[in-house]
Design a protein that fits this description.
Layout (H helix, E strand, L loop, with lengths): L5 E7 L2 H9 L4 E9 L8 H5 L6 E8 L6 H11 L7 E2 L2 E2 L5 E5 L2 H18 L6 E4 L3 E3 L7 H4 L9 H12 L2
Parallel strand pairs: 6-7
Antiparallel strand pairs: 1-3, 1-6, 2-3, 2-8, 4-5
Helix pairs in contact: 3-4
Length: 173
Amino acid sequence: MKTGTQVIHLAGGCFWGLEKYMAMIPGVLEVESGYANGKTDFPTYEEVCSGQTGYAETVRVVYDPSTIELGRILELYFDAIDPHALNRQGFDVGTQYRTGIYYDSEADGEVSRHAVAALAERSRKPVAVEVLPIRNYYRAEEYHQKYLNKHPGGYCHIGRETFNKLKKAVEQR
């Protein structure tokens, strides 16, 4: 990891779409699909899908804080997910598809909690996004990495209009 960069782990349903979405954001340097905050070592996709491991499908986001702040990343993240859905995104249902922000510094935890509280206040609906320290993270199998780039017509719970909205916002920068 490059010096001066920061990391945040974001769970938002199936990691294929969120990985592609996060990679489009200027200032995001690396994205990787994986599994976070579970209770076994070296989980496989099949084990995570069983719902027995406690892992969430998660995207590890490495970013340059001199280009983009964590608060802005979280605003864009909230645009890509349904923050009110508990243990589901789109057609994907189960605890492995929960939404969550997993941080490795208390400063990032504070920013994350504030962002979720502000979202809850604006929406006046309960927010299901958990905010927790990152306890563990394992990279997902290679076939999951950049899946939608390899399979452009592959399943994605994030709608085309959401990708287009982000693309337009990036172009207007």
